[in-house]
Amino acid sequence: MNEKKSEADHRILLVDDDTEIITAMEYALSNHGYDVIVARDGNQGLALAERENPDLIILDMMMPKRSGFLVLEKLRRTRRVPIKVIMITANEGSRHKAYAEMLGVDAYLRKPFPIDSLLTAVEGLLSS
Fold first, then answer.
1. How far apart are CA 65 and CA 62, in angstroms?
2. 35, 61, 78, 126: which could join 68 in a potential S-S bond, CB 3.0 to 4.6 Å?
3. CATH code of the domain covering residue 16
4. What is the pLDDT of residues 13-27, one digit of tens each?
5. Torsion angles phi and psi, residue 10, rounded to 5
6. Per DSSP, which regions of 3-114 are E strands?
């Protein structure tokens, strides 16, 4: 039997090096009942993705140690069942968005974005 998960059953991994953005996203997602895990750089994000098996990753593009692109490339290469990924970035370039889409990102948000836009994207991806 394939039961639909409730929000509380969904684990979301936030991978970003900006403390203010992490704090705002973690607060909003937790208040909507999601189980939130935080990584502060790409290497930590990859390690947590492997260990925690989240339902969704919210991934910053530009980070120290390993960029969001490198994290996404590795996740797409190594996981049999792809994790849903929302990429967030302050970068304005359309080339970056095209590359993220080529790697199979599920949603792409440019910073600063309204928290409602993030929540709508999360709900849409986790309900599908």
1. 10
2. 61
3. 3.40.50.2300
4. 999 999 999 999 999
5. -95, 130
6. 11-15, 35-39, 56-60, 84-89, 107-110
